[in-house]
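Researcher: Can you fold this with fe (ii) ion in place?
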Amino acid sequence: MQETERASAREAACRTLLRQVQSIQAETRTGFPGQRVLDTLLEFVERHRALLPDEDFAPPRAHSRMHPLAEGLDTPYGLYLNVTRPGKHAEPHCHGVWSVSAGLAGRELNQFWKVTEQTSNTSAKVGKTHAITLERGTGMLMQATDVHSTTTQGEGETRLLHLFERPFEQFPRVVFYHPAWGTRRALPQGTGRTLRGG
Ligand SMILES: [Fe+2]
């Protein structure tokens, strides 16, 4: 398949996926459709793997790069293909939106944390709860209030798909925690796009 042909097939598949997610969400009473959306994303990966070849998604210049697959369009969501280099680590943070993720290649350790004490806007304690490893064929869902840290493991790049409740541009304030220092830092609104990398 030619690159341009593949790009339009990919866009059509992504639009279909986001419409499916929207109809699942419409049928769900809570704001978090969870497992059904994750299953839909995993099916998408299995079915459309050929539309997501490495050559179409360049590695990051620094540590991490989010390639937008579909932002907004006629649905409220953001869908990204994330490429990270080995050793990349992100301190515990909370996105403030729900998300589902699926592994394409490589391995990313997701450590989940619980806020055990918050004494001010700038100080909080966090403790580890559980961990999930994302790799090919596996998935992960996060609620809007979940806190996770990420580490890219192994020798090669990690490639993951992330479907967020909203595109990066519309993220609320992303909150970072530093476990050793007991600090909490809310990024200014709209800086969710800085998570994109480059
Ligand atoms: Fe994150």
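Model: Folded with fe (ii) ion in place. The chain has a mean pLDDT of 92.
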